[in-house]
Design goal:
Layout: E1 19-24, E2 27-32, H1 43-58, E3 64-69, E4 78-80, H2 85-94, H3 98-114, E5 120-124, E6 127-129, H4 131-134, E7 141-144, E8 149-151, H5 165-170, H6 176-183, H7 189-194, E9 200-201, H8 207-215, H9 231-242, H10 258-265, H11 270-278, H12 283-292, H13 297-310, H14 315-331, H15 339-349, H16 367-370
Parallel strand pairs: 2-3, 3-5, 4-6, 5-7, 6-8, 7-9
Antiparallel strand pairs: 1-2
Amino acid sequence: MTASASSSSLPELVSGGQVLAEQLGDIGVITLNRANALNALSLGMVRDLTTLLLHWREDRSVSAVLVQGAGRAGKAPAFCAGGDIRFFHQAALAGNPQLEDFFTEEYALNHLIHRYPKPYIALMDGICMGGGMGISQGASVRVVTELSKLAMPETHIGLFPDVGGGWFLARCPGHTGEYLALTGQTLTAADAISLGLADALVPSAALPALVAALAQPSAVPGGPADIPHTTEEIATRIAAALKPHAQTAGEGSLAAHRSAIDLHFSLPTLAAIEASLASDDSEFAKATLATLHHRSPMMMAVTLELVRRARNMTLADDLRLERDLVRHCFQLRPGTASETVEGIRALAVDKDHHPHWNPPHIADVTPELIAPFFASPWPAHVHPLRELD
């Protein structure tokens, strides 16, 4: 059943088929259906995901929710490549108020997923970046495959790791959170599991069988008449469905660099991190420094401060801070003066891959440039995410 099909059990959706929904047994299945755009999230998709999760939260015939990405024939899969950055660029230049709506509603959706009372299973097959991490990191079970590519690459476009990224990266072991946030390094399945950003490795080809196993009525203790089931029963059932397909992931390629990451990225400032990497003649340090020199210096400094603050924040407070930051990304320097607008231009619009960062060098970033990002533009009682707990 698609999102546009008539059904008394499903609400009306607004994304024009970019989100598909069906109920298989007692499992609500959501398929992101924008495959030609790597299932990047539009505002309509954010609204449909929210509508479905709220609907199934109250539906006693649904015991768990599963989210996956539509595939592309003959091409590598993508769970979700993030938000629709071309929309961000167009909306920022046009003064479209839907840009504000997008981030408010997306961050509220991220919070809903983290706090969802029923098991929520994310099949993170292929590309899972930015907004894709936002709709998967709060899942009860985060499944990756041999094709998974996970990242928070926002500093590459003059943004910061949002969608709760400050919060979940800050909880990675050691100082790997700072490393991932500043560099946008892409992780394999093994790396993601070792860093606590995924739970199970299943071959990509086995995912349809996993979904079918979860949906089998025979897998429901006592049959459909017993719905709703306890959280423990559903967790046992999910584990049983995963068991025949799950594989050992190994330690991942980053394991060999963990001590170097902690050494460099534990330092108090971006300039100190740069200097430390520059003094290290290892190939890892050289490659990492080269990566940082392609990112926005100002937004890396904002990002470092975000991750450090988020270590001592609740998820709700982190999302409120991120909502402040993303508004400032587009409003402190409006239009083409925005680092984010310039970063998206270089990557996705003109595709020249030569953003003109301002300031251009890490040494040019001052505390006076960064401080305004952390001043909320709203009093607490009217903050757009004030109701998050």
